[in-house]
Amino acid sequence: MTARILVVDDIPANVKLLEVKLSAEYFDVLTASDGPSAIELARSEAPDLILSDVMMPGMDGFELCERLKADPATSHIPLVMITALSDVADRVRGLEAGADDFLTKPVNDIALFARVRSLARLKLMMDELRVRQAASGNDEVLAENDVEVEDTIVDARILLADASQTLAGKVSDYLAEDGHRTDHVKTVDEALSAAQGADFDLLIVSLHLGQEDGLRLCSQFRSQDDTRHVPILLLLDEEDLPRLPKGLEIGVTDYVIKPIDRNELRARTRTQIRRRRYHDKLRDMLRSSVALAYTDTLTGVYNRRYMSAHLDRKIVEIAETVKPVSILMFDLDHFKSVNDTHGHTAGDEVLQELANRVTRGIRDLDLLCRYGGEEFVIVMPDADVDVAVNVAERVRSLVADQPFAISGSDTSLDVTISIGAATTRDPMETPEALISRADEALYGAKEAGRNRVRSAELELRSQRSIATGSAGGE
């Protein structure tokens, strides 16, 4: 994915070096030579991430971070400090000022790009929630710092996965100082079992779980409904840093290097829990404030009217973001027989449960709406055709793999859906044209036997591959 990065440093050579590295990875780079200029650019250009030096004349990186986090217009922008300072006390000071991470000079390129992409993804998700909150007609703007540490960042429930009883005892004691409760497990299976159906605010995972791989556990957490959106804090040794980029790629949100410093652990934990509470508050405000005019009264998801405006806006944004937009169009297979055999009340229950299952299977930034009757559309910003098809397959399985219960009846129904996917990178394509292509793909899925996913883009890619192979053979 691409992103707009603001680089702040008073030394031109440092700015140029980062600008060249980031531009080579297709990031859009803005630059500032001091704190006041950085604040002005952050407000006017709304970057996806800020990389700031710490040691600057006048306003240093710590003060810059504090001022940005105190402003509702910029508080949600992730900030990474780049510094020659290696003392734990300096890291803690930066974290308490609101920094998301530290990178030590000379900056390792792999760590830099991994952290940039991870935080840019996080901001994209938060921005989508903020956009929907604004679109709902609610004038209140919630800033991350509105989630006060004193009021809400206490009594959090934390799951710790580590094979060492000694280390677990220390971590639990450190976090208990802030009133947090820690559940300790020693294996991957114990961790997955403990997290099922539970409501944890933070997951702390050691990279080495005895003979088991902590990153695999992190990956499994990200694939489970109960833990998909819970922040993950990774514990690792310094010699394991080369594996950190992979952890950030699969969904780790922060990390602590052993031996664990108490104050750093507490600071990083507060940051992650505050962000989790901020995310939850945005979602709750959105649910409570969305006007009835934009929602479907039966299923509770957005209606066609809202979807049309949202999709139109996302396609127009391609010109600025250069990020693809995909949509999934699906409907229930043989839904008429459900109404005819079991009645319209049963049909309504199926549609309601369908919406619930699909909501669990899509990303936070995706938008589910009822297009009409038993037909639904999912709008997917920043999703190419491969991402769209992967999500579509997950949604299809969530519907097909478990029968639908009907109230007042011992009978359960086997329900399936067919899905058509379409993707665009053209800001001039109309929403109607994109929907039409998805509808054609949906028709193809029906013709191919139902309970399947079809994408015009993937089929075209396959045809080109066959044609190229045939030409090569000749």
From TrEMBL:
Q: Name one GO cellular component term.
A: plasma membrane
Q: GGDEF domain spans which residues?
A: 323-458
Can you cite a GO biological process for this protein? negative regulation of bacterial-type flagellum-dependent cell motility
First-tier enzyme category under EC:
transferase
- From the UniProt annotation, give the residues forming the signal peptide: none
Sorted keywords for this record are: Phosphoprotein
Entry's transmembrane regions? none
Question: What superkingdom heads the lineage?
Answer: Bacteria
Q: Which residues form the Response regulatory domain?
A: 4-120, 157-273
This entry's Gene Ontology molecular function terms read: diguanylate cyclase activity
> Where is the PTM 4-aspartylphosphate found along the chain?
D53
Question: Is Phosphoprotein found in the keyword set?
Answer: yes
Q: What is this protein called?
A: diguanylate cyclase
Originating species: Pelagibius litoralis
